[in-house]
Design goal:
110 residues, 4-stranded antiparallel sheet, 3 helices, 33% helix, elongated
Length: 110
């Protein structure tokens, strides 16, 4: 592929497997994501209301294209249980060309 920088992974954490699964299925059904990986038992530490808080969370790794970010962000706000969900995107700098082509084909098949 000529332009690998068009792909990204969006990271979203949530407090239940059910919510992570629901978000993933919606994003896949709507072809906003090509693949969602749910990683259980993520120990998160963060500052909340001036206190250090620890939570056991589920991390969703959403593989998609940059042009889908805003749509995904909007859907996560609709589907997520947190008031301020973590929605962080990192660009895929390099990757297996056949995998990236597969992602592109899935995401173009709306």
């Amino acid at each position: 592929m000529d332009n690998l920088k068009e792909f990204c992974i969006i990271y979203v954490s949530t407090n239940t497997f059910e919510n992570a699964n629901h978000i993933s299925k919606i994003l896949l059904t709507e072809r906003l994501a090509a693949c969602c990986s749910i990683i259980p038992n993520v120990s998160s530490m963060y500052v909340y209301k001036d206190n250090i808080t620890t939570s056991n969370e589920y991390l969703i790794m959403i593989k998609t294209r940059n042009d889908k970010f805003q749509l995904i962000e909007n859907r996560i706000y609709e589907l997520h249980q947190y008031d301020v969900p973590e929605i962080i995107s990192t660009k895929i700098i390099e990757g297996n060309e056949s995998y990236l082509q597969w992602m592109n084909d899935v995401l173009d098949n709306e």
